[in-house]
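Work Package 3 committed the consortium to producing structural models of liganded targets before the mid-term review. Because experimental data for this complex are still outstanding, the team generated a predictive model from sequence and the ligand definition alone, so that downstream docking and mutagenesis planning could proceed in parallel. The input record is reproduced below exactly as it was submitted to the modelling pipeline, together with the SMILES string for calcium ion.
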Amino acid sequence: MRNKSVAILFVIIGITTCLTLAAGDSGDSTTNSRELPTYKIPNLLENGEAYYAPDGLYLIAQINDPDAQDPGRGKVGGALTYTFTDRGEDILRINDRGMDACSWFYPDKDQLLWTSTRDHINDFPAGNWSDDQDYPQGAELYSSDLDGGNVRRLTNNEWYDAECTVSPDGKWIVFGRQINGNADLWRMKSDGTEQTQLTFTEDWQEGEAYFLPDNKTVIFRAWKQSEKLLLNQMDERNGTHTQTPMNIFTLKFLGQDLDVQQRTFTHDMNWAPFPAPDGKHFLVVRIVGDHNWELFLCDLADGSKMRQITFNEEWDGMGAFSPDGKKMVYTRSDPGSWSMYSYVMDVSSLNLGTENYSGVPAKSKPPTGWVENPADFAPWR
Ligand SMILES: [Ca+2]
Ligand SMILES: [Ca+2]
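The resulting structure, written out as tokens with the ligand in place, is given here.
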């Protein structure tokens, strides 16, 4: 294990990774009979959280890089933004300094959106992308050309800005901003103007927002800080490690109003949502066992439907579909380690493409027995 902590971004609490760098390997396909065909993207150092370009071939992701800012031992950072094809070709570094996090292709023009500490290397502590108590306060959002040129800084403040995505029509960016330890969702025009706060919640910690195909709804995950702190105290007393309850919600823009709806209904950790192009399904990551995280395909209209789609006794998470819904890129750890790489699964048989799009279900049917707490929604309504 190197003493430099290198990692991909996990905008999530409680996953501390200390990774070793290794050469990319040969892109072997796996033969797990319960999984759809999948392969590891070759030729890349440790990497993760990849997202497809509009062409369904190129990806943007964070790759470990010795030139990146070192967050310090045991902290998640040390990666920079790259683009490459999902066959591991045409690998291009987009940013050469700081440490980077979430990134995205603008759907409507040849530009990239990415997160970096590059302008705060010396004036802020590096922080830790995986610890919400230590999120990098020097993280800012940037856009650039596809080759990394013409860098434009979209945010300029002393807070954590990250978890950024662009709407399918290219008009809006939704992102997460944490001020004084409290995370909320924000929106701005795709050129960085008109930065507007969307949620104003003290207890809920919202983040990881992605637009649905209607351009009017975003899907996001949230946890309650009060609940997390209570569980942390209990774990410290008992020497246990309890999952922080998180659920997935949608937020629809209705003029000046927001309609927030719950889309998962469990008491464990549901995170890293990603919408399918059909407007009916979304991915979520859940813990199913020790060191075993799996991806589930969920139904926006029925909270009782959660179909497991990875079956691998390791860390699997952060899935994202190609725009045609035929491929899913996701992050998988090497056996018995925290070394992460991007994989591609052929999900064409799941029929998640735009040809099946007929709008976004207004709300979900909770599973039998689920009791809604109206107080949960009060701060959003
Ligand atoms: Ca909040
Ligand atoms: Ca797994």
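Reviewers should note the following from the model. The longest helix spans residues 225-238. These observations will guide the Year 2 experiments.
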